[in-house]
Amino acid sequence: MELKWLDDYIALIDTGSFSAAAQRRHVSQPAFSRRIQMLEAWLGVTLIDRSRKPLRMTPLAAEHQRAFRSLVARIYEFRATLNAAAVDGTGITIAAQHTLAAAYVPGVLARLQSLNPGQRYRIRSENRTDSVAMLMRGQAEILITYETAQTPCGIPAALARREVLGRDELVLVANPGLHDSLSRAVAASAVPMLCFPPESFFGQVVRADAMPELMRQRPVVVRCVSEFAMGLRELALIGQGAAWLPASLIHDDLRHRRLLPLPALGQSVAMDIVAYLATPEGLDRADLEARLQALRAAGAARSPRRPRRGGL
């Protein structure tokens, strides 16, 4: 079996026509038809109902179209992973919390690459526990994560150098409709909330430093629990509830007033954006200092702005 046969078949699914699929695959229609027949022979099943026009897949083929697409995607992803491992063997792996990987690290990476164009980087987006474990196990050279005084990472100084890159904060926000509703509600009215799991990093921070204040003022109804800040942001935008979200993630939403702060209901929680640089045996000190300087410069360029206060 050849991978191009599977690519041919996906093209046939997409176009619904032998002639159009052959044109997409840059082969003659007779050659294309032979390749589809060879795929069918290798699989031992008939994929095309050739007794009917226009083209129609057999019921078995139609049932497994998604599986064919998934198989091809996995093959290419596996090849890309192997190629990346071979090419980037000398690169630097950066492990980062999901939110930072999406909202903060791209700008840092661009700055790092401008300072050292020849250096290759690989980004691993993980939850905080897993990203810390990657650094501790030697699977990443740099960790970019959040910390507060109450929730340090606990990485021994002997294993990594710590550098504060900037500040961020969790801000209680709601979309304009809910913001207006909450501003007019009586004290006994419940506040619909979008929450992080209590065992997650953001969940621990909010429950330690912010949620008790809100719950003393108003009853709370939890509408959704998710460890993904980006998912909670989407729900907040459509008015499903209020949520504490990182300012770096919702900077544009605050600027365009798609989300509005609720400082009277819940205080914001400050967090440090911290980089840890692994210091394995044999690492040249000059190289370590160069990495630190590059991260300081990148962090200074990317430090999130404080959101404007207002509302309730």
Describe what this molecule looks like in 3D.
With 312 residues, the chain is an alpha/beta fold. It has 14 helices and nine strands. Strands 1, 2, 3, 4, 7, 8 and 9 form a seven-stranded mixed beta sheet that branches. Strands 5-6 form a two-stranded parallel sheet. It is flat, with a radius of gyration of 26 Å. 30% of the residues are buried.
Main attributes?
seven-stranded mixed β-sheet; two-stranded parallel ribbon; 312 residues; 19% strand
Q: How large is the count of helical segments?
A: 14
Spans with pLDDT under 50 lasting ≥5 residues?
A: none
Class by helix and strand content?
alpha/beta
Strand content: 15-25%
Overall body shape: flat
How would you summarize this macromolecular structure in one to three sentences?
It is built from 14 helices and 9 strands. It has 312 residues and is α/β, with parallel strands linked by helices.
SSE inventory with pairings:
Elements: H1 3-15, H2 18-24, H3 29-43, H4 59-63, H5 65-87, E1 92-97, H6 98-103, H7 105-115, E2 121-126, H8 128-136, E3 142-147, E4 160-174, H9 176-184, E5 191-195, H10 201-209, H11 211-217, E6 220-225, H12 229-237, E7 243-246, H13 251-255, E8 260-261, E9 269-278, H14 285-302
Helix pairs in contact: 1-2, 1-3, 1-5, 2-3, 7-14
